[in-house]
Amino acid sequence: MGVLDGYRVVDLSIAMAGPLAAMRLGDLGADVVKVEPVTGEWQRHAPAGGATGNRINASFLSLNRNKRSLAVNLKSDAGREIVHRLAATADVFLQNYRPGVAERLGMDYETIRGLNPSIVYVSMSGYGETGPYASRPGQDLLLQAMSGAMLSTGREGDPPVPAGSYAIDAITAYSAFEGALAALLHRERTGEGQRVSVNMLDAAVAVQMQELSIFTVGGVPQRRGREPHGHTYIRAPYGVFTTKDGYIALGMPRLDGLAAAMDLPALAEMDGDADGHTRRDEITAMVAARLPERTTAEWLEIFARHDLWAGPVYGYADLVADPQVRHNGSFVTYEHRTEGTVTTPGFPYGLSASPPRVRRGAPLVGEHTRELLAELGYPEERTAELLAEGVLACED
User: Fold this and answer.
1) 393, 391, 343: which is closest to 363 by C-alpha?
2) How far apart are CA 21 and CA 290, in angstroms?
3) Burial class of residue 183 in the structure, from the number of CB atoms within 10 Å of its CB (0-12 exposed, 13-18 middle, 19+ buried)
4) What letter would DSSP give residue 242?
5) 327 C-beta neighbours (distance < 10 Å), count
């Protein structure tokens, strides 16, 4: 039994952040109904990396397991009526429309709350639903750039480099997931539904609680140095360095231990907490000059003997094959109706009594339209009429 068995989520979101939040609720057992246009959600037609799949591309597949698909035209009165009836049966209603769109479609909080006063309504946006930036496009890279985080890494004068993952989308998704669970707990205790507002900008700010507090409370400026560095507020050495045959990551190892491990006696004379910041470029340059003398494996073995924080730099092939990743079951493999055997990232948490699981793969467009309308009390004849009128789409 999943911890959210018996709960229903209506997911009107697109792209990554909203669908990922809804999928996490589905992983815990909720009945997630993905409401999408009759032509299919945007992500179905924008395959990340060009991985198109058979009927479902990899990016859509990765964000929409444990959902049923209802393909409906929300610009029609009949389509809106269907979703309103669905919302009346739901516990969570989630959307990430541009400001004003939910109101035009009759999917705004006041309308949905009028149909279902106990609803947990999750509204997601890029910059907030009001204010000077409300109409701006909320896209991961744009928010990474605005968040200030890019200027915490790298070398002074070099262009900022984005993260190697859709970091702000993921952070926003987990903020929405957390907010939905908190609101459901509040409802369990009080019977009261509520609106949960999440935006990418606030999520990007909140996740930098240490860095921004160092700036706002400690008054320490954000300053990149002459040498590449992994984070402006962490002492040297910190970052990825070149070795004889590849790369190695160093996570602020003790300077006295590093001096012994690398035969750099000058490091032993330095204070890690003070000089690690004020002499950051000098320390980084010394370490970077010595590391190419040995292979990554040799350095890792040496650093392990000296109890220093160091690790390999993986590509995806290395990650998937790693013994700890395999031991943890970090990926899940299951059979999909059209895509065959698929392997995707699994679950970021474990629950001993009610663990998350894959109950169904990502749906085809409208795969569950007939099933859902039957649950809502629509006679088959009326469903057939709506399909013929183009209000619905169905995968038979």
Assistant:
1) 393
2) 45
3) buried
4) E
5) 8
Residues designated as active site:
169
Q: Alpha-carbon distance 58 to 358, whole Å? A: 16
What is the pLDDT at residue 349?
A: 86
Residue 157 token pair: 């004068």
Tokens representing 212 are: 């921004």
Going by C-alpha positions, the residue among 196, 199, 226, 177 that lies closest to residue 347 is 177
pTM: 0.93
Per DSSP, 311 falls in state E
- DSSP codes, 331-371: EEEEEETTTEEEEEE--S---SSS-----S-PPPTTTTHHH
In this predicted model, what pLDDT tens digit does every residue of 189-207 receive, in sequence order? Answer: 999 999 999 999 999 999 9
47 pLDDT band, cuts 50/70/90, is confident
Based on the number of CB atoms within 10 Å of its own CB, is 104 exposed (0-12), middle (13-18) or buried (19 or more)? exposed
Strand 310-312 to 238-242 pairing: unpaired
DSSP string, 145-183: HHHSGGGGSBBTTSPP---SS-HHHHHHHHHHHHHHHHH
Distance CA 321, CA 317 (A): 6
- CA quadruple 42, 44, 48, 49: dihedral positive or negative? negative
18, containing H or E segment:
helix 17-27
pLDDT tens, residue by residue, 97-115: 999 999 999 999 999 999 9
Mind listing the pLDDT tens digit for each residue in 104-160? 999 999 999 999 999 999 999 999 999 999 999 899 999 999 999 999 999 999 999
Length of the chain: 396
Local confidence band at 71 (pLDDT 50, 70, 90 cut-offs): very high
**Is omega for the bond preceding 19 within 30 degrees of 0, making it cis?**
no
Give dist(CA 284, CA 271) in Å, integer. Answer: 14
d(C-alpha 247, C-alpha 52), whole Å: 32
What is the arithmetic mean of pLDDT over 81-101? 97
Tell me the two tokens of residue 220.
């320490």
| C-beta of residue 41 within 8 angstroms of C-beta of residue 392 | no
E-assigned strand segments in 238-308:
238-242, 247-251
Separation of CA 378 from chain center: 36
SS3 70: strand
Contacts of 50 (CB under 8 A, 6+ apart): none
